[in-house]
Amino acid sequence: MPFIGELAALSTAFLWSFTSLFFTSASRRIGAYWVNKFRILFASVLLATTLLIATGHLFPAGAESKSYYYLILSGIIGLSIGDWFLFRAFVTIGTRLTLLIFSVSPIITALVAWGMLGETLSAMAILGIVVTISGVAWVSAERSANGVESKPSDRRKRWLGISLAVGGATGQAIGLVLAKIGMGQNIQPLQATFIRMISAAIAIWMFGFLRGDTKEVAEKFSNRRAILLALGGSVCGPFLGVWLSLVSIKYTETGIAAAIMAIVPVMVIPLVVLFYKEKVSWRAVIGAMIAVGGVFLLFLAT
């Protein structure tokens, strides 16, 4: 099937746009830290169930230990550490600035893929990445509808938030490249996703145990509304979304896949209009059109 990698990346961005709404609502009720912990746990259970039904076993038969090493490292760096940086950045400097900085993730991904995989991109692909990132950055840089945006009270806090956002973008980039190495030719994306997810879940919950927050688990879990929202976000994001993201990098260049997946802020626009009745400015519309044009160039480049 032509464009399978690009279409998988586009589907990933579509699913992640819903994920952002689910997790934002859940985080307002129980906090981003707990949403992150529960989403990884829920996704691991969903992936395990799917694998058992589809294949009868959880792990790929005959996979080399080297593949496990890369996939486990990918899960910890990309889904555990990287996402923790990203969530902390949201809290520290706000969503708008975090997404603006995070939009450089495709560039970091392309550089990491070039260094570790030897992937090279055509001039058309590079142009497509630049145009896509420009559109996403244009949308993300827009101020909120009411003109209020959380601003750090001091320069040190602002730079901390910027560093966290860059850390999140770097973690995602390294995680994707390591996942592609780990999959190789023998491991399917669903199996690779489960290995990454269960590794991230173990890392996150062990950190929580050492942090001493296990007593709060029952209290947070008793908030049914938040748990249902986190479950909905887990289905769209770390379950289906992450699965499709690995399908994408398996069948196309990692930098191209990352650029297409980065259009989440653009895809969120119609959703916030539909669900939150927010007004969309011409700036957002123009930025969305630029990003869509960049994605079109990326399809042409393959």
Topology pattern, helix = H, strand = E: HHHHHHHHHHHHH
Mean pLDDT: 87
Strand content: under 5%
Individual helix count: 13
The Rg value, from CA coordinates, equals 19 Å
Q: How far apart are the termini?
A: 13 Å
Sheet of most strands: none
The number of strands is 0
Oligomerization: single chain
Sequence stretches where pLDDT stays below 50 over 5 or more residues: 144-150
Which range best describes the helical content: under 10%, 10-25%, 25-40%, 40-55%, 55-70% or over 70%?
Answer: over 70%
Classify the secondary structure makeup into a structural class. Answer: mainly alpha
Shape: globular
Please indicate the count of domains: 1
What does the model show?
There is one protein chain. With 302 residues, this protein is mostly helical. The chain has one domain. It is built from 13 helices and no strands. The relative contact order is 0.23.
Describe, in short, the structure shown.
This protein has 302 residues and is mostly helical. The chain has helices at 4-30, 32-54, 65-93, 95-102, 105-117, 123-140, 155-183, 189-211, 217-221, 224-251, 254-261, 264-276, 282-300.
Topology:
Blueprint lengths: L3 H27 L1 H23 L10 H29 L1 H8 L2 H13 L5 H18 L14 H29 L5 H23 L5 H5 L2 H28 L2 H8 L2 H13 L5 H19 L2
Features:
mainly alpha; 302 residues; 80% helix; 13 helices; globular
